[in-house]
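A quick word before the example. In earlier lectures we treated sequence and structure as two separate objects. From today on, think of them as two lines of the same record. Here is DUF421 domain-containing protein written that way.
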Amino acid sequence: MFFESWDGVIRTLTVGPLAYLSLLLLLRVSGKRTLSKLNAFDLIVTVALGSTLATVLLSKDVPLVEGAAGFAVLILAQYVITALSVRSAWVRSIVKSEPRLLYYRGGWIEEALRRERVTKKEILAVARSSGYADLKKVDAVVLETDGSLNVLGKVAADGLSTLCDVRGHPDGDHSDVG
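And the structure line, produced from the sequence above:
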């Protein structure tokens, strides 16, 4: 069906900008962290906000005020969970995963590759896309908490290593990084 009535089009053109503005306002008030993609929970909130916006735009059964309330509930839940995860190691352990070392100084970490379901070919592709034609120039490959792969080149180690909080790193010490 291509066209039902002008009522639906007018509703979408009216409710659309208002729903968008209400979401934008709530996101602005809640801060930058709301739409970050640092972990699976953040991704869920982002997808849920998009789904709620689409439902408000396209469903005649969901009034704008109810959609805005849905936005507020999702943003408040994200705010509360992230605030608790900053203050509580227990909540943080439930909500957030740890980054995982998959390749380190010339060696594949087979157990980590299996557990994280990442192949060597995927790592090679990420190394190439990061500009590395030779793994001898790669110090480490890390599967981050958001599911992305980071390739770290070899550098002189003078200060705090960015690998200090990575599971599987031989010198990893999680105590000073929250």
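Notice the following. The longest strand covers residues 138-143. We will return to this example when we discuss secondary structure assignment.
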